[in-house]
Amino acid sequence: MAFVAKSRFFAAVATALLMTAGAAQAAASCGKTSAGFEAWVQDYKQEAAAQGIGSRGINALDGVKYSTKTINADRNMKSFKYTLDKFMQVRGAQTIISRGRAQKAQNAALFDRIEQRYGVPAGPIIAIWGMETGFGSFLGNQNTLSAVATLAYDCRRPDYFRPHLNAALKLIDNGTLAPNAVGAMHGEIGQTQFLPLNVLRYGADGDGNGRIDMVRSKADALASTANFLVGHGWQRGAGYQPGQANFGAIAGWNAASVYQQAIAIIGQKIDGE
């Protein structure tokens, strides 16, 4: 009987391990085309529930569509191909500097509050604001949840984007993000284009109304940007040009070296240094 009991025990363990492996394989599945996306979304609902996401977030997945535009944008990120001079020209650096100085003057009290709170001067924040959305003039027109779900499903970087998908669902759960919200091609949100997980981690109430609105509140978006930089190692009072202490925090904003340098250069000129 002891032998039979042990056999049953080991059989049960083996079955449990196979089931666990099967679940892990299902969770890790991905696709390179739209085929299979809808089935993957339905399977992902179980993973979302296991992550503690509520019914509002899970139900929002019913509305997602595979975004070919997002995939095309992800395959053609030109920032990694440009020289610094070309990037500055394409981004309209001189216009951002000119308009950025005006924004700094018009919102002097806001930027003073942000610097007092986070230790981040106006220049790099304004540079990011101008480069990302033209100071809030264009926030994107892509369905945010569809963009993030597509990239979470796509085989290129699923491990990177699945936490962002979970974060987007949590933001829908808590009312910060509307299920039909629109933004940039990779699912970035608001006036300085935060990915969903970064909204959860670094979103800040800059206008003091008790909510975080990255779209309609420039104070929230700009305070959140400063908080992001602090979260990536920003040191109060230190410089932010290449080779200086705070350039590493700027590098956390974007992986393209030309983008990092542009933030530093534009920010310095806005700050009048």
UniProtKB/TrEMBL annotation:
Keyword terms of this UniProt record: Signal
UniProt signal peptide: 1-26
Database matches in SUPFAM superfamilies: Lysozyme-like (SSF53955)
InterPro entries in alphabetical order: Lysozyme-like_dom_sf, MltB-like, SLT_2
GO molecular function: peptidoglycan lytic transglycosylase activity
Gene Ontology biological-process annotations: peptidoglycan catabolic process
Cited PANTHER family: LYTIC MUREIN TRANSGLYCOSYLASE, MEMBRANE-BOUND LYTIC MUREIN TRANSGLYCOSYLASE B
Name of the protein: Murein transglycosylase
